[in-house]
Amino acid sequence: MTIGITGATGQLGHLVVQKLKERNTGATIVALVRDPKKAADLGVEARVFDYNQPETLAESLKGIDKLLLISGSEIGKRVEQHANVIEAAKEAGVKLIAYTSLLHTDTSSLVLAGEHLETEKLLKTSGIPYVILRHGWYTENYVGGLSDVVAHGTLYGSAGEGKISSASRADFADADVAVLVTEGHEGKTYELAGDETYTLADFAKTLSEVAGKEVKYQNLPVDDYAKVLVSVGLPEGIAQFLAGTHVGTEKGDLFDDSKELSKLIGRPTTPLATVLKAAL
């Protein structure tokens, strides 16, 4: 068995490779990356793999039995990029594609959802056996600048009472690995989210307990929250995007209580407090 991982030098891909190695299944692991030199520390075979160079992809996929297609990071280009990979996988004879999609893609209001949904449709009509791994929110998405939040005693946001069912990036990596090394997942769509659900006010309370200092959550109108993000150095476009995810949070886009993630990985997902302690 040969397993290929796209984006293997990214945060998620790196974890997936390491966890595959730890499982010691005897499978050959291939890192599919833009720059193989950056994959040297992974300790596996690395092949050049650029979503934007479709004419080269099939050659790099030769001999790959199962492929983890980690979604590209270039918003607006991802459908075309993913289509390139899927077509190359057909040509190369890949037997299974597992794709990292977005939680409740078919109903989500998040700007990210559309490209994920289009990719899912491409997979379903490709003729290649597939698994759709709809990733929820990474808890790590909230830890940037955490020390400053603690220092100022205020967590700003625009998510209202929206519920968040996040999990650690490592939890999602374990799920991705599970579908690659076990059988019976073909044609399935997994809604993956954390066991624990919280609002940003709950997040601030947990952060207070972990940091030993009171942190309060202050809910702002979305435009005001975007301005706060710009004031701390984020570009306007990224600030608007992040503020938009808070609007989606209030609508319930980041909530799921099916516990499919913990069932798939065979253990509870990582508690919020654990991630916050590590981040601090």
Task: Provide a descriptive summary of the structure in words.
With 280 residues, the protein is an alpha/beta fold. It has 2 domains: 2-135, NAD(P)-binding Rossmann-like Domain (Rossmann fold, 3-Layer(aba) Sandwich), CATH 3.40.50.720; 140-164 and 195-256 and 270-279, Alpha-Beta Complex (UDP-galactose 4-epimerase, domain 1), CATH 3.90.25.10. The protein is 42% helix and 16% strand. It is built from 11 helices and 9 strands. A 7-stranded parallel beta sheet has the order 3-2-1-4-5-6-8, sandwiched between helices. Helix 1 links the parallel strand 1 (2-6) and strand 2. The longest helix is centred in the first third of the chain and has 15 residues, at 78-92. The chain starts with a strand and ends with a helix. The mean pLDDT is 95.
Task: Give me some keywords for this one.
280 residues, alpha/beta, Rossmann fold, UDP-galactose 4-epimerase, domain 1, 2 domains, seven-stranded parallel β-sheet, two-stranded parallel ribbon, 16% strand, NAD(P)-dependent oxidoreductase
Strand content: 15-25%
CATH class category of the largest domain: Alpha Beta
Number of beta-strand segments? 9
State Rg.
19 Å
The helix/strand order is EHEEHEHEHEHEHEHEHHHH
Specify the oligomeric state. single chain
Topology (elements, then pairings):
Elements: E1 2-6, H1 11-23, E2 28-33, E3 45-48, H2 54-60, E4 66-69, H3 78-92, E5 96-102, H4 113-124, E6 130-135, H5 146-152, E7 154-157, H6 169-181, E8 189-192, H7 200-211, E9 216-219, H8 222-231, H9 236-250, H10 260-265, H11 272-279
Parallel strand pairs: 1-2, 1-4, 2-3, 4-5, 5-6, 6-8, 7-9
Helix pairs in contact: 1-6, 2-3, 3-4, 7-11, 8-9
Pfam family, one: NAD_binding_10
InterPro entries: NAD(P)-bd_dom, NAD(P)-bd_dom_sf, NmrA-type_oxidoreductase
Domain NAD(P)-binding: 7-180
